[in-house]
Write a structure and sequence with these properties.
The chain has 1079 residues and is mostly helical. It has 40 helices and 12 strands.
Length: 1079
């Protein structure tokens, strides 16, 4: 132990603490140590008084030349530092060591460097910012800062960063600034760090301008260590305000280039990697400076590519850290296609590694790139699925965060099921709380329909209701009560939603789990109490009996059995008794029991209900009205109903009420409050002004020309993509910034914008994406289609290798997970038509006897989400190109009655005839009729267009039917139309060159109304109109946009129609129906 410079007592102390079995045993050890330290830190002088005999340099050291006293004094000098370190152990373990504070202050004034450093260390660790002993150290630090001893100056600089408070900054700032010119590089690098700390404590004493000036000079220091320390200060300042360092980009690039070229001394290398920490620091600074700045980002592209390439070549942990920082920088600065491809390749290498640490880096890097450039995530579908099945909890959590970041309207159902699955099996309270918040967020933001939202939130209440905010339950109740929230909306859809909600909660009431959360019980009580009469699965008297059994059951099923929950259940029982018309025996017993309750509120409710039930049962309908949760309550602020009571009291001699003289302020406050208090603000948010480049690609809208918020994106030329830049770093000039936090289509001044003519470049044919998720999906950047599905093949597809059932199942999961991401390959065919077990949700499915509309199922199991048809032509909602003939690509040619294939099988390509000459612009070619191509119009001449079926009275008066039921009009406004347009992923477009039945806009809108659609708006200035409808009780929505182009002569017009829907079959069928009606 002599080599360890530890006494035996200190060694035994550390050993005893490490071997202690409980906190109590550890406390006993520390208590004995405190007594020992107090005795050894105090010595008695010759006068019998306590002195500081063991502290070196103390004026009270006992004198004497005796040999024994000299040996004891030498021993005390050697042991002084150890005693203070033992005192520090006492403080670290939670006990009071204040008895040694004064000794630490005195030790800081010692002439010995090692004792001085120990004293500074103990003071910085133990003294609070308000402790009075800090003032005693200021003079000593000032002396040490100007000392000629290098070690004393360094010790004082370290003490300044931890001991100086904001009111003491002015006492040492001058000395610290002077040390920036010190001859020793160790002092200079500590001085710049200390100066930054002083600026943080007192920005008015050490100003930012002064600090930036010193930092710029220290960045050019001749010693690399000083330059490296300065980089930490630059990064900290740049994260707050990067503007002062914009002009430092060339200097930072030059430094990074010299480091990569190994121009620094070899002592800065780490495992043959030149100064890896400096490289990472510079890359992080460039990432902050280049964010949303194309001019600054242009100069970074070359050096970032070189740094990434050289780090990739090394292939060790230090170089992997540099690669990760380069990936984050590339995804944060103004985008460049070449660098993004390199970052995607690096992420692929990380994900394919066997090392869990590298896979974690890969998932983290993929999460950073997928927010702004989602197409790079399509190449790693199976890798993400494998990470979801990994046993490493840290990797699993990061993968779940990736799923949350890549959610869009297409894959929200699959991702929500995955998050609910992991939430159900997790026991970590922090992970459960995080997953609960994420599920609530994506469900509210990307819910495909209201019925799905109700089922999902109810399932969340069952799994983790204790972690759900009460506002989520309030929003759910408001949704059920209000429906779509439109005054003119069809009440039928709202009633269907309420019926589905009632059936869902009635099934839960019929078989309640052993434990239910409070929010679930209260939501169940409200829904059943308000709309229990709509249930067809259970009669109302049985529901009342079930609620009474729930109220008298265990507290675990009552969400803890709090009084507020019991009151809600009692109110629900009373409402259902009023709806039923009589009081069942169970309800009467339950109400009678609670008339003796210790809760005064519940007791009062039951007594009043008994009185009404026995004396005035005809008033039950007025006291508990049906579906009156949204009715306004009329409040008589004058309380005129008390006039009779007041008049009677005055007639018996009571004094009239006199308003106090000093009560004017209260009236004013009430008047102001009544004027300012209002309902919800219904005005939309203003369009964000901050430019965020490259964002908004995760929504996966039906047209690749639409951003996340529905803002118009111009059609890019072939070879470019949204959010990307060219080789010079210049972005597409008409790219509109989007805000991913608020998916909303801005439709202000819509009448002045919609007729805008935008030149469109015809995109080249896209190649067939590979069915293998490990291979990159090679598609054209201008290809249409949603999520890469439906790309038109230009050549016969290669024969796919035989895959196992496990591989096919993973690919189906990946296809559902990556739905809506550009470049994702289509899903493989399911092995059986049954739903996979992972997707089943029996807890959320009502009884079989309950009639419910069928919502759109997730893409992983439903053939509706498979590429049954080719991608629809790209349509820009705010700038339609009426000069380009748009026809149905592949969907109509398959025939309405043909089975929907799940994978595009290679078909022989017929040899085309001689290419006809290009038609003149004045006479566009008549598009091929989809019914004729499918062989459904036998007997009609091929060259002649289809006759106008709309001339028959039967079709004019018949509504369009979907799945055997007529569609219903969807009453929405123009802004709501714009919001829903961005949420409908499946688009079908058609161009009718000449039509007489829809030669005017009024005729076209009348045709839509006859088909069963609601006319949203006619835009006469641009000859455009929009309409909306719904099918399946509101589970599927279809939106129609049409534009009329009058032809010379005035008797006919060209018609362009675009249909977008949440259901691919609905958009296809409705589009074909409208084409034939228009013709």
């Amino acid at each position: 132990m002599s080599g360890m410079h530890l006494s035996r007592e200190f060694f035994e102390l550390i050993k005893a603490i490490g071997e202690s079995k409980s906190k109590q045993e550890e406390d006993r050890i520390i208590a004995r140590e405190v007594v020992t330290l107090k005795k050894k830190l105090e010595t008695k002088g010759n006068d019998g008084k306590s002195s500081l005999g063991m502290i070196p340099g103390s004026p009270h050291l006992p004198g004497g030349a005796g040999g024994a006293k000299g040996n004891a004094l030498n021993t005390n000098k050697k042991k002084a530092r150890e005693f203070l370190v033992r005192c520090l152990y006492v403080e670290m373990l939670g006990h009071d060591g204040s008895f040694g504070y004064i000794k630490a202050v005195e030790l800081a004034a010692s002439q010995s460097i090692i004792h001085k450093r120990t004293g500074y260390l103990v003071c910085s660790c133990c003294l609070s910012p308000e402790h009075e002993f800090r003032f005693m150290l200021v003079n000593q630090m000032q002396r040490d800062l100007i000392s000629s001893n290098l070690l004393e100056s360094c010790g004082a600089l370290l003490a300044v960063t931890s001991l100086i408070t904001s009111d003491l900054v002015g006492t040492v700032s001058t000395q610290v600034i002077g040390l920036l010119e010190h001859s020793a590089e160790t002092v200079r690098k500590k001085a710049i760090i200390a100066l930054h700390r002083l600026h943080q404590l007192a920005p008015d004493v050490v100003t930012q301008q002064e600090l930036i000036e010193k930092v710029r000079r220290m960045l050019c220091d001749r010693d690399p260590a000083v330059m490296g320390a300065t980089l930490n200060v630059i990064e900290a300042i740049a994260r707050v305000n990067s503007q002062p360092f914009k002009d430092l980009v060339p200097s930072l690039i030059s430094i990074l280039k010299q480091i990569c070229e190994r121009r620094l001394p070899s002592e800065y290398d780490y495992h043959r990697i030149p100064a890896p920490w400096m490289q990472m620091k510079i890359v992080r600074i460039l990432s902050v400076i280049g964010k949303n700045d194309s001019a600054s980002s242009e100069g970074m592209y070359e050096i970032l590519g070189d740094c990434l390439r050289k780090a990739e070549e090394a292939g060790i942990n230090a170089s992997n850290a540099i690669v990760y920082e380069c990936i984050r920088c590339i995804t944060n600065i103004y985008p460049n296609n070449t660098l993004l491809d390199c970052a995607g390749a690096s992420i692929s290498r990380f994900l394919s590694s066997r090392s869990q640490n590298l896979r974690y880096l890969g998932v983290t890097g993929l999460a950073s790139i997928v927010e702004k450039h989602p197409k790079y995530a399509a190449d790693h579908q199976l890798a993400v699925i494998e990470c979801l099945e990994d046993q490493d909890e840290t990797l699993l959590r990061k993968t779940l965060d990736l799923l949350y970041r890549m959610t869009n309207p297409v894959n929200v159902e699959f991702i929500t099921i995955k998050l609910l699955h992991f939430l159900r099996g997790s026991t970590d309270p922090f992970l459960r709380a995080d997953l609960t918040t994420k599920i609530c967020t994506i469900a509210e933001r990307y819910a495909p329909n209201n019925a799905w939202y109700v089922r999902t939130i109810t399932e969340l209440f069952k799994i983790a209701g204790d972690l759900v905010d009460d506002g989520v339950a309030t929003n759910l109740m408001s949704l059920i009560a209000e429906g779509t929230g439109n005054e003119e909306d069809d009440e039928e859809a709202d009633m269907v939603l309420r019926k589905q909600a009632v059936e869902l909660y009635v099934c839960l009431l019929g078989n309640p789990p052993n434990r239910m959360s409070r929010v679930l019980v209260e939501t169940l009580a409200w829904v059943v109490g308000e709309y229990g009469y709509l249930s067809s699965a259970m009669p109302l008297d049985a529901i009342i009996d079930g609620m009474c059994a729930l109220l008298s059951g265990s507290t675990a099923r009552l969400g803890g059995g709090v009084q507020s929950t019991r009151r809600l259940i009692l109110s629900a029982i009373m409402k259902m008794v009023s709806q039923y018309g009589s009081c069942p025996t169970a309800a009467a017993k339950c109400i009678d029991d609670y008339t003796k309750s210790s809760d005064p509120d519940a007791q009062k409710r039951c007594l009043e209900f008994q009185t009404i039930l026995t004396q005035a049962p005809q008033l039950l309908g007025e006291v508990f009205p049906v579906d009156a949760s949204l009715e306004d309550v009329e409040v008589d602020i004058n309380m005129s109903f008390l006039d009779g009571v007041v008049g009677e009291a005055i007639s018996t001699g009571a004094q009239p009420y006199q308003k106090p003289d000093d009560d004017d302020d209260d009236d004013d406050d009430f008047a102001v409050a009544s004027q300012t208090a209002s309902a919800f603000k219904m005005t939309p948010y203003e369009k964000p002004t901050e430019k965020t480049y490259g964002q908004g690609m995760m929504q996966g809208l039906g047209s690749s020309n639409m951003g996340v918020a529905g803002a118009p994106n111009v059609t890019l030329p072939p070879g470019s993509s949204a959010g990307a830049v060219g080789p010079q770093g210049a972005a597409a000039p008409e790219q509109q910034p989007t805000n991913p936090a608020e998916p909303q289509l801005v439709l202000r001044n819509v009448a002045n914008v919609w007729g805008k003519q935008a030149p469109t470049v015809q995109p080249p044919a896209a190649t067939v994406p590979s069915t293998s998720s490990f291979a990159s999906a090679t598609t054209s950047s201008a290809s249409s289609g949603y999520g890469g599905f439906g790309a038109s093949p230009v050549a016969a597809a290669p024969v796919a290798p035989v895959k196992t059932e496990e591989q096919l199942e993973k690919e189906r999961m990946a296809a559902a997970l990556f739905g809506g991401i550009s470049g994702a390959p289509p899903p493989p065919p399911p092995s059986t038509p049954a739903q996979p077990a992972a997707m089943a949700s029996p807890q959320m499915t009502p009884a079989a006897s309950i009639p419910q509309p069928t919502p759109a199922p997730p893409a992983v199991v439903s053939p509706q989400f498979t590429p049954a048809v080719a991608a629809a032509p790209e349509v820009d909602l705010l700038g339609f190109d009426m000069d380009t003939t748009t026809t149905m690509a592949a969907g109509p040619t398959m025939g309405m009655l043909a089975p929907t294939p799940l994978v595009q099988e290679p078909e022989p390509v017929p040899t085309p005839a001689a290419a006809p000459p290009a038609p003149a612009p004045a006479a566009p070619a008549v598009p091929a009729d989809p019914f004729a191509a499918a062989g459904l119009l036998d007997g009609f001449a091929d060259p002649a267009p289809l006759p106008s079926f709309s001339t028959t009275q039967a079709l004019d008066s018949a509504k369009f039917e979907f799945h055997g039921a007529p569609i219903a009009p969807l009453t929405i406004t123009t802004p709501q139309f714009g919001e829903r347009w961005g949420q409908c992923p499946h688009a079908q477009s058609a161009n009718i060159p000449s039509s007489t039945s829809s030669s005017t806009l009024a005729k076209f809108m009348a045709l839509c109304e006859r088909a069963g659609l609601h006319k949203v708006e006619e835009i006469a200035a641009t000859n455009e109109g929009i309409a909306a409808c719904m099918a399946g009780g509101g589970s599927s929505v279809a939106l129609i946009h049409g534009k009329i182009s009058p032809l010379p002569g005035g008797t006919s017009s060209g018609v362009d129609v675009t249909v977008k829907s949440t259901d691919p079959q609905l958009s296809l069928s409705l589009s074909m129906y409208l084409q034939n009606m228009i013709r």
